[in-house]
Amino acid sequence: MARESVENLPFSDDPAGLFAYSDMFFINRLLWLGLSLGALAYAEQHFSFDFFARTQPQQSPALRVSAHTTFSKLPAVKPQFGGWLSWQTSWRLTKLEFSNLVRQPVFLITVGLLVLLAILLTTMLGLNPDFPELPVTSRMTALRLSLGLFIGLFLLVMTGELIFQERTVGFWPIYDALPQSNFVLLLAKLLALTGSAALLTVGLFLTGVGVQLGSGFSDIDWGRYVADLLTDGFLRYCQLIALGAFVAALVNNRILSHIISLLLFAALAFWYQASKSEPSIFLYSFLPGSATYSDLIGFGPNTALRPVLHIVWWCIAGVLGTSFLLTWNRGIVASLPERIGQWRNQFNWPFRLAFLVFGILLGFSIWQTQQRLLALPATQSIQYKTSTMAIPSVSGQSINVHILHRHPYQVQHMLRAAKIAMHRGEQLFGAYPYTDLQIKEIPVGAVDILSKPGQLLISEKQGWIADNRQPDKLDHIDYLISREVFKQWLVHRLTPKQQSGDGFIRQSLAEYLALQQVAKQYGPERLRQRLDQRASWYAASRQHSRKAESALLQSSGNDALERGRAALALNSIEQVWGDKPLSFTISQFYKKAVQQPDAATASAFSDELAHQLPDSLDYLKTYLSEPVWFDFKIGRVANLANGLTVEIITSKWRENKNGQRQPVPINDYIPLAVLDQNGHTVYRQLVNPNPDERFVSLPPLPNARKVIVDPLGAWPEPNKRDNSKIF
């Protein structure tokens, strides 16, 4: 109607402004608005809450006939706690706590870091500077010691965080109001932490096996993995969890419990590291002999102590864990005396039995420990395998070389090294002075190597487990065998007297000859690397010593001087004079000392050296009698058509007792080498630079790209960075 009214309006009546419609249109709108409001009022009156409250429901006739109502009995709900149900509840809570724990980013990051550190320690960070090592199982399980500090700190922190978790997030009013006992709730947390410790241990195991298999090493000792990672790994981590839980209950403060737990663990770890030479047996969770394990004798005299001490620590861990369950309070935090006073309400027969059992076992274990300490064996028997080689001697008889070993990986290499050293020794000193030579593998511990007449005792860490798949890096074995074989003549045959300078005879001469064997078999580059090691060793010893620097010919009992500095000094002489005349001088000294035992002194060798040296090289003997230092620097280089001109700036000095430099006039010969772009030597010459004549002329060398002074690094210098220049 409204629409028709609008459509039928004449053109002149079309709306031209606001409210310009006809009266009929407004009447229509008001009519419909009134009808709508009336319908709304009716609906509100009949469908409101008051309407339904006043209206009675209509009952069907069938329902009105029923006179009696029947009820069925439902089973009564009776809450049950304790017994087997408590263990079931603990197990369900354990799975919940464990899943929540391992899904946390901090746990995943920790596992990733653990695996990464383990791989780095066995591949890059833990590389042996002397030779590449095989990934034997004892090396892999030793990761539990180097990474034990990291794992222990993590577990102690996670123990405190998990115990205080409900209080940290504000959920404790509901959690503490649960009907389960402390035993059920707290045992679940301890078991979840134990599961995380098991995961970390499995991570170490898988990493070790992965490194071994990835390196192509298949001689895996599975029993060693189980024994080491279980006893010194997982079970020790559980004991630390018990310690952290007890501290948390005792302190009842999250931050303070972290601080105390970490301080206790740091003190235990520091004391254990400080007492490695004489291990203390009463350090909670630590077992003696772990750091000195040997594949030959196991844990040595501590083998009998470790099982009993392990029971001692587990008894203490049991006491700590039981005390944690009793001391932890629920609800409002109470003081320590009040919490201990609550023991009377919870100290029922299971707790009493636990304390009784742990106490009896603890007392018995301590008594057993004392008994076994009194009965420790002085030595341990070792089952050896023997390999033998007959070496012809200049005397016409064969020399039998016997190798008694536990690790077979480098036996053949050692036999070859002994054969070469024997031939070289007989060339220099005559017939081998003994009937045979025994090379014996000894457990790691007291000494790395010990030489006796006709016998070499070499620690299992000194080349026995070297990686035989990298033969070009096994020069340390040749050096070690050669050095000790030469000592059969220079030390055991001569028997130098204990006096000033005897260290030069006992150590330095054999050191030089052994390094020359390395240079012949592995090249001058490997010799340069070994001399760099000796130079760094000697420099480090000087930094830690406040005594005045002494000369080589006066040294006694100073390995860094007699082997480190001596290797540099004797190789400096060899670079100028040559190996053949220097070795001949050592040979002549030995033959004279054999005939006159009193002549086996450092001064006698100095006299022999002075006798053999030409007059122009007489200054070389001062390398042994004076602690001189050098500094070489390559200045300007001119590569002209008629030749190569090199400027060499040199200086020489000695240090007085106060460490001050005293300049010494220099007129020494030093080797100068010219290299091409590939690093190959194209020219080599002995030069004699001095402050008055610093420029050295060389022939035309069109392929020259680099010049270097002292290419072997034999002259002792505090800084070798300026010894070369590229042009």
TrEMBL record:
* Keyword field: Membrane, Transmembrane, Transmembrane helix
Bilayer-crossing regions: 20-43, 105-125, 145-164, 184-214, 234-251, 256-274, 311-328, 349-367
State the source organism's domain of life.
Bacteria
Q: Which organism is it from?
A: Spirosoma telluris
The molecule here is called Uncharacterized protein
For this protein's source organism, the top of the classification is: Bacteria, Pseudomonadati, Bacteroidota, Cytophagia, Cytophagales
Pfam families (UniProt xref):
ABC2_membrane_4 (PF12730)
